[in-house]
Design goal:
5 helices; alpha+beta; eight-stranded mixed sheet; 190 residues; 34% strand; single chain
Length: 190
């Protein structure tokens, strides 16, 4: 078995998921339904950011024919849409994005989801917006409807630890963990 390195694939360090639509494909802006998530990468994780920039460059180089299209030249990478974005600049009012880079990753296929021991996770409540995870991503060139650039594909997710939900919705077990009991409730139900 040959172990070749795919230059367009990246496995992140510890990241956080936002807008996690990984259990059921969802249509965004009227497009085809896809599985997707925004992957928040702390700016301090320079290793992951360097790997993503290298993968974007590799996808650009691999996709030259697609990016050229019917034109004679390939547009410079600096003029194309790329997926690595600055949370401080693009989401200044969203606290979760502060101090982070982010990529929006999507796929036509559901991502594989495992725990820290690489055991499959099937409980949909385990992966949500706010969870901390490692994510495998693939980068590829696109040329569609006049838009050209490099996009980010969602491959697999490894849950590392729970985090505060970013959806503003508390977990039921947290809301009702006060141990409330009342004899008056028995009369109400009778």
């Amino acid at each position: 078995m040959t172990n070749t390195v795919n230059p367009t694939k990246v496995v992140t360090g510890l990241a956080r998921l936002s807008y996690a639509n990984i259990w059921q494909a969802k249509s965004i802006n009227g497009g085809a339904p896809k599985f997707s998530t925004s992957v928040l990468i702390p700016k301090s994780d320079t290793v992951t950011v360097t790997k993503i920039k290298a993968a974007i460059q590799a996808a650009y180089e691999e996709g030259q024919g697609k990016l050229r299209g019917s034109g004679k030249t390939v547009p410079p990478l600096s003029t194309l849409k790329t997926p690595l974005r600055d949370g401080d600049v693009e989401r200044p009012d969203d606290e979760a994005y502060q101090g982070c880079w982010f990529v929006n990753a999507n796929s036509n296929n559901a991502p594989g989801v495992v725990d820290v021991h690489c055991q499959p996770i099937f409980d949909t409540s385990e992966i949500y917006s706010g969870v901390y995870a490692r994510v495998s991503l693939s980068f590829y060139a696109f040329n569609s409807n006049g838009n050209k650039g490099v996009a980010c594909g969602l491959q697999n997710i490894q849950k590392i630890k729970d985090g505060e939900s970013l959806g503003g919705k508390a977990k039921a077990e947290d809301d009702f963990s006060d141990g409330y009991q009342s004899d008056a409730d028995d009369d109400f139900l009778g």
